[in-house]
Amino acid sequence: MKKVIISACLLGEYCRYDGKTKRVNAIVDAYKEYEIIPFCPEAPLFGTPRERISLLASEGKIKVMTEETKQDVTALLEDEIMAFCEKHKKVDAIVLKSKSPSCGNQTTPILDENGNVLEFGDGMATRIFKKKYTQTPFYDETDLE
Ligand code: SF4
Q1: Less packed terminus of the chain by CB within 10 Å, N or C?
Q2: What is the residue extent of each domain of the chain?
Q3: pTM over 0.90
Q4: How close is the Cα of 105 to the center of ligand 1, in Å?
Q5: Rounded-to-integer distance, Cα 31 and Cα 34, Å
């Protein structure tokens, strides 16, 4: 059976930072014939609901920072995502939630030190997935609505 990684909030899990979900029925329907692997790196690490995080460009690197308490959680999030990749070495498709600091695919705001949007890029999971799953097609949630 083919396998697809899908952002868990698109599947109806209540794992968003605000405790809500963002289920997209068209995505669930499109992958009826696949083994669906739900993916959410933030909920197990930080709980739900949780403080928002955002991506910050700093000294040529992208950091993941909590918005209110200003904690650098880059390594924590990277480790969680890498561990997921180790468990799921081969998949046939990846569908990700747009604009998320973890899951966004060219839609995530990258901020400067003052909180201004510098550009829109990949979330932290998408950055890692693109290195690990080089043969796998990626879809944004809006591709399948
Ligand atoms: S966008 Fe990604 S990290 Fe955020 S709630 Fe959905 S699955 Fe979790």
Answers
A1: N
A2: 3-143
A3: yes
A4: 12
A5: 5
Residue 57 DSSP one-character state: E
- Choose the residue to mutate in 15, 20, 55, 84 for probing ligand 1, maximizing ligand atoms within 8 Å of C-beta: 15
pLDDT in tens, the chain (145 residues): 999 999 999 999 999 999 999 999 999 999 999 999 999 999 999 999 999 999 999 889 999 999 999 999 999 999 999 999 999 999 999 999 999 999 999 999 999 999 999 999 999 999 999 999 999 999 999 887 6
Ligand 1 centroid – CA 87 distance (Å)? 18
Backbone angles phi, psi at 109, to 5 degrees: -65, 130
Kindly list the protein residues whose Cβ atom lies closer than 6 A to any atom of ligand 1. Answer: 7-9, 15-16, 39-43, 97, 100, 102-103
| Angle ∠(49,114,141) on CA atoms, nearest 5 | 45
